Every structure is written in C-alpha cells, then in structure tokens.
Amino acid sequence: MATLSDRVFFFFCFLSLLACAAINGQLSPTFYGSTCPNLQSIVRSAMTQAVNKEPRMGASILRLFFHDCFVNGCDGSILLDDTSSFTGEKSAGPNANSARGFEVIDTIKSNVEAACKATVSCADILALAARDGVVLLGGPTWTVQLGRRDATTASQSAANSNLPGPGSSLSQLVSSFAAKGLSARDMTALSGAHTIGQARCTSFRSHIYNDANVNASFAALRKQNCPSSGGDSNLAPLDLQTPTTFDNKYYQNLMVRKGLLHSDQELFNGGSQDSLVRQYSTNAAVFNGDFTAAMVKMGNISPLTGTKGQIRLNCRKAN
Predict the structure, then answer these.
(1) Can you tell me the distance from the alpha carbon of 28 to that of 147, in angstroms, rounded to the nearest whole number?
(2) H-helix segments, 182-283
(3) Which of 123, 166, 180, 215 could form a disulfide with 261 if both were Cys (CB 3.0 to 4.6 A apart)?
(4) Is 69 helix (H, G, I), strand (E, B) or coil?
(5) b/e for 242-266, b at 16 or more Cβ within 10 A?
(6) pLDDT tens, 232-262?
(7) Whole-Å CA distances, 34 to 16, 24, 39, 119, 170
(8) Measured between alpha carbons, how far apart are the two ends of the chain, in Å?
(9) Angle at CA of residue 94, ends 58 and 124, nearest 5°
(10) Residue 319: exposed, middle, or buried by beta-carbon count in 10 A (0-12, 13-18, 19+)?
(11) Residue from 139, 150, 302, 55 nearest 47 by CA
C-alpha cells in the first residue's frame, strides 16, 4: 500500500507532469505549454515565409532534422559551427556543400527568443520546423514531442560514420536505421521524404551512368544536367513528378526504375521492401501513417533532457 508521502509525490507529479517527464527523460507535446504558449505558431509563421520564398526549403529543413537525429541523437548538434575545440558536422561528407537552411533556423530562433527568452531549444525548433515544412508542401501532420535540450559539441567523425549515403545498398540502409532503433519499414517510409527536394549531381552520377536498374530514358534525361565529370553541384529533383509536393509519387517512380539515387532504387530492386513500395505507391494513407509514426520515432533518438545539455541562445554556438 502506498504511503502518504508516496501519494503526495504522485499527486504533485500529476500536477507537474511536464517537469517529471523532463527529469525522467521523456518528451511531451505540451512541454512549452505554459513557458512558451505561442511557440508553434511562431515556428509555423517563419516556415511559411521560408517555404513560400523557396519551396525546396521544406525538404532542406527536413533533411537537417534527419541528419541531426542520426548523429548522437536529436540534439541540435548539426547547427553548431566549428570551434577551436571541435570540428563539427557541417563539414562532414554527407553535409558539406549540401546541408542548408541554417539561416531559416536562425530566424526562427531569433523570433522564439524574442517571445520566450532562453526557453526553447534549437533541437526542438528544428523538430517543429521539419514537421511544418512537410505540412506546407501538402504532406501529413503529426504531433511533435518536445523537451529536447541542445548539445554543446558536435562530431564530424560521427556524422561521417552514422549517416547512410546515396550509394548505400539495401542491407546497409536496413542496418544503419536498425542501429538507431528504426525498423526496415520505418526506413522505407522515411525514405519517402525524397518525394520533395533536390540532389546534387555528385550524389546520383554513379547511379545513372553505371547501374543497370535504371530506366534508360530517365538516365538520359538526368545526364543532360549531370555530365560524367564536372558539374558536381548541378541539381535534379529527387521526385521526377512532383518535386515540391509531399505525396507518394516517389514510390511510383521507384516501380518504373526512376529513383534518382542508388539508395532510392535499392528499395525496389527485387528485395525485402518491394511489396511495401508497391503498397505505398497505391495507398497514400498508409504511407502517410507510417511516415508520421516513423518521424516521431526518429525524433525520439537519444534526446538530451532534464539537466543534460543546455538551451542555446544562438543555434550556431554553445552558450
């Protein structure tokens, strides 16, 4: 039987659920409910301006969130500039010359600081901005869990080793996501983020010139803007059909061998994910449901909570 002190403890835990959750390392969708009640509208407003100005930005912010979470957890470390004591993630192979949208996060952070000083982490701002970018491009919404704190350091080596590359095989993709607690189904659903955004020639050149499992006319089209040498930064849409609309066309492309990256086409190449790609290609609701569930799971990778980390005042540097 619970003692009086036990009952008092649980009563106060119930009243201050958010504080108890933070201490125990749990995230909550209402974490800033009293400390920054207008947070979500502030983030949405700035993201609306950014995506209206450049639709690609929705994909860029989503990619930043993915690349943040896969390197030492969702801790805002990808946003840190290099310092004299560490070389950060921005210059790592998967991010150099391709990670973008940092100035958008800076703008949102500035707006949030003006409303709720030293309260909201850069990691949480990035999580909200990634969701809003998807919604603004016509995709599904989900409830973002909040309460992350920010890292004070970053690791270029971890970014180089933990992020799956565009040349990854199916088995490499499955294992890299499994290492983060994400299933093969989660991996295939999250890959659907490639229904928006663009990729650099250097990331798909090998696929269109060397792989057999690529539609010939599609390869010829992409070669027009991606020569066998040079033009590394020339861009092509990841989704041939609707590059600025979040939908399930990405999976339809894979079924006719029009995946832009080698790693994309690996999802439909006679392997374990073929049937799921078929399902997503014809059932957007199933894809949307799996994608949003996987985004919540990814957002829960090793967050810093409670007294760990800090609330950075400038997303580019530790306090």
Answers:
(1) 6
(2) 184-191, 201-210, 216-223, 249-255, 262-265, 274-282
(3) 166
(4) helix
(5) bbbebbbbbbbbbeebbbbbbbbbb
(6) 999 999 999 999 999 999 999 999 999 999 9
(7) 11, 19, 10, 11, 45
(8) 47
(9) 45
(10) exposed
(11) 55
CA distance 116 to 196: 32
- pLDDT tier, 6 (very low <50, low <70, confident <90, very high otherwise): low
Task: Yes or no: say if 195 and 242 are a contact pair by the CB < 8 Å rule.
Answer: yes
Q: pTM of the predicted model, to two decimals?
A: 0.92
Question: How sure is the predictor about 26, in pLDDT bands with cuts at 50, 70 and 90?
Answer: confident
Residue 53 β-bridge partners:
none
Of the candidates 72, 90, 107, 128, the residue with the CA atom closest to the CA atom of residue 309? 72
Handedness of CA 155, 160, 164, 165 (dihedral sign): positive
One-letter identity of residue 283? N
SS3 category, 206: helix
Q: Where are the alpha helices (DSSP H) in the chain?
A: 4-15, 17-23, 39-53, 56-69, 102-115, 122-136, 156-162, 170-178, 184-191, 201-210, 216-223, 249-255, 262-265, 274-282, 284-298
Distance separating alpha carbons of residues 303 and 315, to the nearest angstrom: 16
CA–CA distance, 9 with 174 (Å, rounded to integer): 43
**Bridge partners, 278 (sequence order):** none
CA distance 33 to 20: 15
| Residue 90 and residue 101 in contact, taking contact as beta carbons nearer than 8 Å | no
> Percent helix, strand and coil across the chain, each rounded to 5?
50, 5, 45
Note the pLDDT tens digit of each residue in 256-286: 999 999 999 999 999 999 999 999 999 999 9
Query: Which pair of structure tokens corresponds to residue 228?
Result: 């066998």
Torsion of CA 243, 47, 125, 66, to 10 degrees: 10
